[in-house]
Amino acid sequence: xxxxxxxxxxxxxxxxxxxxxxxxxxxxxxxxxxxxxxxxxxxxxxxxxxxxxxxxxxxxxxxxxxxxxxxxxxxxxxxxxxxxxxxxxxxxxxxxxxxxxxxxxxxxxxxxxxxxxxxxxxxxxxxxxxxxxxxxxxxxxxxxxxxxxxxxxxxxxxxxxxxxxxxxxxxxxxxxxxxxxxxxxxxxxxxxxxxxxxxxxxxxxxxxxxxxxxxxxxxxxxxxxxxxxxxxxxxxxxxxxxxxxxxxxxxxxxxxxxxxxxxxxxxxxxxxxxxxxxxxxxxxxxxxxxxxxxxxxxxxxxxxxxxxxxxxxxxxxxxxxxxxxxxxxxxxxxxxxxxxxxxxxxxxxxxxxxxxxxxxxxxxxxxxxxxxxxxxxxxxxxxxxxxxxxxxxxxxxxxxxxxxxxxxxxxxxxxxxxxxxxxxxxxxxxxxxxxxxxxxxxxxxxx
Length: 447
Description:
alpha+beta, 3-stranded antiparallel β-sheet
């Protein structure tokens, strides 16, 4: 272990007791939000996050002054990224600094030294004028609701955008444990995402489809890759990555017993074409980019396509297999009759897999460092994330805790799937906020 790692571990352990209870309270609150119909409490902003927001807002103000004196493209881009934080902080502080003028019976803005508790005091004070008390109660309710919304917006603005968020994506679906039943459920998952894309107007096409080799059973999938070409598709679907479990009675089961099977879903960023000038760090020609793959590290094999009969199967060398030697990653494509088209698709999937692997390796390193202190490990792709139970018509996501009894609607890509995905995105957001708090507290101790 390096000196830097030992110093980081020591700093994190210093904040463990204070942070662990906060993390579990936050996670419990989000679970309760989707399992209860009661009104959620007003979220509080960590003093650490509030300090970070004020520091970034001050930096935004300084950049604005410099831009007024002389325009610079890089400064303008940086100021643009901070503008959302400055705006959210300004709204949050305005909502916190509200008072009632007892003489004029109207609301005014407080100085930073005064705050919302004045309204609570007016409501609780028995000597408060009836008209003023009624006005205070009305203002308190409206301000509290507004403050809850603004608190959420401020916390969200502080979360760094995922580096792949604006990109299209590839959704890879493979059956796991469960044999033929798993292959059938993989087909259900594929159709669910296709229906979701159609309902939301997302451009999607089936890049790769391999049917299982079982005889007499239709709709079984060995592997499928769905390309969603719309910008921002990765941010939409990244919450779907993981193991999806199904509990149902298979069509081949004669005794009516419920079987449990699983399907693995992998969501990868889809790359821009080589030479695209507008993607910066995502340019596959840039050796410093996650998307860059050294051609010298890739072995290319061409072969004749395999599978059911057809005019071109087993007659031309159209199938392409790429092997990334350092990581042993293999991608094989034979969908098209054209070898160049198969080669292009194979390179696209290979770059996506390797870039995702680099990103996950960095996240895993940070997650393990935090987990050693706070006792909460990162949920990887190998863990069960969602259960689809046919007999109960139930879908449960094990990250956010949401449970819906609208199985058919969810499998049809309907509004139920929207609710499940939204709950997981909220869970991911709270996880990112907790990570921010831990990082800021560590930086404060190290300073």
